[in-house]
Amino acid sequence: MQVVASPANTSTTGFGFVSMIDNPMTVGPDIGSKLIGRSQGFYGSADQRELAVLVTMNLVFLEGRYNGSTVALMGRNRIAAGIRETAVVGGTGVFRFATGYATARTQRFNQTSGDAVAEYNLYVLHY
C-alpha cells in the first residue's frame, strides 16, 4: 500500500515513495503454503541512481514454537541484486536480543501489479 508518492515525477527509481506492508509469511512460495506469520513494516525508495529501498520490517510469528515472537529487520534492499542481505536488528519473545542477518531472493515478480514473492533465510543469534 503506497502511502507517499515520489515527489519527483521524473525519477527513474521512484525516489521518495513510501509503502506499508502487511503480507502473509508462509513456509513456501506458493499461496497455499502454510501461514506461519505476517511480514509487517514499510519500505521507501532511498536511492536516486538505482532501484534500492530502505526496508524496516517485523516478521511476526503466529504459529508453532515462535508464536508471539518477532524478528526485526532493517537495511538497504537493492532490488536488482539476485541475493540481498538485510540486518537483523532485534526481536521479541523467543528472539529477544536478536542479532544477525537475513538474505532475500525474489521468487516471482508481477511487473503489472507490483506483487512479488520473496524468499527470506534468517541467520539469528539470540538468548
TrEMBL record:
Main location class: secreted
Lineage: Eukaryota, Viridiplantae, Streptophyta, Embryophyta, Tracheophyta
Superkingdom per UniProt: Eukaryota
GO terms for cellular component: apoplast
Keywords: Apoplast, Secreted
Record protein name field: Dirigent protein
Record GO biological process: phenylpropanoid biosynthetic process
Record text on subunit structure and interactions: Homodimer.
Recorded family membership: Belongs to the plant dirigent protein family.
Purpose of the protein: Dirigent proteins impart stereoselectivity on the phenoxy radical-coupling reaction, yielding optically active lignans from two molecules of coniferyl alcohol in the biosynthesis of lignans, flavonolignans, and alkaloids and thus plays a central role in plant secondary metabolism.
Keyword Secreted: yes
Keyword Secreted tagged: yes
Subcellular location: Secreted, Extracellular space, Apoplast
